[in-house]
Amino acid sequence: MRFGFFDDQSREYVITRPDTPLPWINYLGKDSFFGLISNTAGGYSFYKDARLRRLTRYRYNNAPLDMGGRYIYLRDGDSSEVWSPSWMPVRKTLDSYECRHGMGYTNIRSKKNGITTNTRYFVPLNSALEVWDVALTNERDAEAQLDVFSAVEFALWDAWDDSTNFQRNFNTGEVEAPILSREGDQEDVLQSTIFHKTEYRERRNHFAFFACSETLAGFDTERNAFLGPYRGWDNPLAVENGQSCNSIAHGWQPIGSHHLKLHLKPGEVKRVIFLLGYHENPTDEKFDLPGSNTINKASVLPVIRELLSPARVDTAFSELREYWKELLDKFIVCTPDADTNRMVNIWNAYQCMITFNMSRSASYFESGIGRGMGFRDSTQDLMGFVHIVPERARERLLDLAATQLSNGGAFHQYSPLTKRGNNDVGSGFNDDPHWLVLATAAYVKETGDLSILDEMVPYENQPGTEMPLFEHLQRAVQHTLDRLGPHQLPLIGRADWNDCLNLNCFSETPGQSFQTTTNRDGNTAESVMIAGLFILSCQEMVELASLFVSSPVKEKFVFFDPAFYTEKAKDMEQAIWQAGWDGEWFRRAYDAFGEPLGSHLNEEGQIFIEPQGLCVMAGLGVADGKARQALDAVRERLATPHGIVLLNPAYSCYQLRLGEISSYPPGYKENASVFCHSNPWVMIAETVIGRGERAFDYYKRINPSAREAISEIHRCEPYVYAQTIAGKDAPTHGEAKNSWLTGTASWNYVAITQYILGIKPTYNGLSVNPVIPDDWEGFEAKRIFRGVVYKIKVERRSLLNSIRLTVDGQIIEGCIIPIPPEGTREVNVLVELK
Ligand code: BGC
Ligand code: NOJ
């Protein structure tokens, strides 16, 4: 069953009924001011950091689930009937409803009693504010008298504090209200702007504003006055009465609500613009008059004035559309499969941008207060994003590297605001450092920008510790070499990519964090997953080292040449064959007692997905058929119609020696759900052994667009990947959870574009090496790579995967299109599969 449809032409998903199985959300903003917005206008906004600069309040796990947002209430002056054009929070049945989630904007259009409301929410480029552009149309034959109310609830900035520290918070709230009475100065935005300035009197130099383009009939800034005692957002008293209270918040719960009285003639369209924004003043210019607590508004007023103009709003919206068009036009594919085209060309790329921006911080499943930016998360997100805005990827890489520890290890997370690592969720996840190598390689391959390897970057943000980025990568590899276990496999540390495989934790205390507890010495438990990743990392280092060898900064540290990494990869491969191969598939790990996991010797958890994917990606067993054997075992034991589960059989009980993984009921999360992030590793592995049919089959199983028709089972948004889909051991097999912020976005993008379609950046040029399904006759693609447009046409001549490449009419050996001469704009490529 569907709850909407894709409008690919407009790059939108159109939701046609408000009661979707879960809130189906979108994101506003691209670099500093961000908003989450649901299909019924729920959600919240923040500036840069979802925890420390939260503008509006949102209560997670509320009932109903999605209450609190960017609300507009309409009250019909004739009948006194009240409704919300976004359905929530009033939930009055609408005569028509449509929500269009697009690239960086959401448009909700509905009609009731002859009044059509069309609201477009977006954050203009380079702005720290969001626009609510509301158009009201009177489609009645008679004049309409409408009371319009806006409503947001302000958060007191630190979202953690905001939801816990009430003995203080109920006293600190402060606002500056609109000055309704000032005469002869009708245009002045001060008459229609609400300022939220809690804690501005002391150490904050930032405040929020909520402005409106219309003359106000009233306003409210105190929640209790607006809602009325014992009432909720679904029936505010002020709205019911058709009159605001002009309330001023002193502590308690500051809100922002404008009240407008509109008279619309038949057919008349009235446009009202609201702006919700964030503004900072220099510390010594905070106040209007020295000694006062009144905000100095000199620099904010021009910002507000500018965007209250409809013409400027229109331009800002066109600029946003243009921005996204340009970004997405960098890579367009036209394959025989509509779900692939739509995900690659629109939604998957878009989701990559969002995960790049948010990491795992703020979604409808991540509260924005629990997790900062993850080290391994951000590095992997970057791999799907780097071609979109390479400059931002570069900056992010350097930020991440600057949090690296001098022993090559990593903090698991860092704060986007301070850009510093924090220990709240620990460190010692021994896979973490390697993702920096993979991400750097992806960046350099895309851009050709070798200079990033020379950049001087500190460790742990400590001045004086700067070393070239290349040395950071060397230390990442060394970190593993310094931590080998009894089988010469990498020690797992706190956990590896699978955060919940906590082999040294042994936690018996309820509520104790699996992420920070270690009760064993940690010198025995080993990870085959890290071993596979280590080889991938070494393969990248071989290439990077040969490019870096002539760098001017090479003398600053001990440089290891490519041969070093080749040798270390070989040693690791040997260790895997000796202790990591179970006979039919790769083992997963060794526990703290030196016993294997992911082995036929185990009763549960006999086979795990991660090492099958990563080891084959690293090329292991390709020559002698073991790779094929491992992937056949995946097919037989892990594949389901809803995707590939993480392990099998699921753990039925909590096991002290395994940690969090066994804390989940069977079929959920890391305990044998379809943990989508790891599926593309198997897709890629299948392409490595040439099985395009299987790779694509797995791709389709979790492709959200391909699952749209079963939305009542899948339940999450059909336009973005979710982290997990309940596995075959779960009673709700097929149900997705944790949509949006997942490494799945980036890895699926990489799997489909670079391995199945086979269009892959390399240091020496764009490589085209498709491994596609049997029944495809070919496909076409346009890819901008290092400033040149590549027009690629793939034609299948047989069922084999060998390639004949013709570049601008010339047959070329191999599958890499050489970098064309300077000044070339366009390259035409014909790829024949023979
Ligand atoms: C989740 C993991 C997550 C970890 C760290 C666990 O509860 O299942 O997916 O990585 O917490 O926040
Ligand atoms: C989600 C985390 O964000 C990611 O870092 C981790 O690899 C997966 N969970 C698997 O546990």
Give a written overview of the molecule.
It is a single chain. By secondary structure, the protein is an alpha+beta fold. Helix content is 26%, strand content 25%. It is built from 19 helices and 43 strands. The model has no long low-confidence stretch (mean pLDDT 97). The site of beta-D-glucopyranose (BGC) has 6 residues, from loops.
What topology emerges from the helices and strands here?
Blueprint: E1 4-7, E2 12-15, E3 25-28, E4 33-38, E5 43-47, E6 54-56, E7 71-76, E8 82-83, E9 96-102, E10 105-112, E11 115-122, E12 129-138, E13 144-157, H1 159-162, H2 166-172, E14 175-176, E15 194-196, E16 206-212, E17 218-222, H3 223-227, H4 237-241, E18 254-264, E19 269-280, H5 300-307, H6 310-328, E20 331-334, H7 338-358, E21 373-374, H8 375-385, H9 390-401, E22 411-414, E23 421-427, H10 432-447, E24 456-457, E25 467-468, H11 469-481, E26 526-527, H12 528-548, H13 562-580, E27 589-590, E28 596-597, E29 607-608, H14 609-617, H15 626-637, E30 639-640, E31 643-644, E32 647-648, E33 674-675, H16 679-688, H17 692-702, H18 711-714, E34 722-725, E35 736-739, H19 744-756, E36 759-762, E37 765-768, E38 778-785, E39 788-796, E40 803-807, E41 810-812, E42 816-818, E43 826-833
Parallel strand pairs: 39-43
Antiparallel strand pairs: 1-2, 2-9, 3-4, 4-5, 6-13, 7-8, 7-13, 9-10, 10-11, 11-12, 12-19, 13-18, 14-15, 15-16, 16-19, 17-18, 20-38, 21-22, 22-23, 24-25, 26-27, 27-28, 29-32, 30-31, 33-34, 34-35, 36-37, 37-42, 38-39, 40-41, 40-43
Helix pairs in contact: 7-8, 7-19, 8-9, 8-10, 8-19, 9-10, 10-11, 10-12, 11-12, 12-13, 12-14, 14-15, 14-16, 16-17, 16-19, 17-19
This protein binds beta-D-glucopyranose (BGC) and 1-deoxynojirimycin.
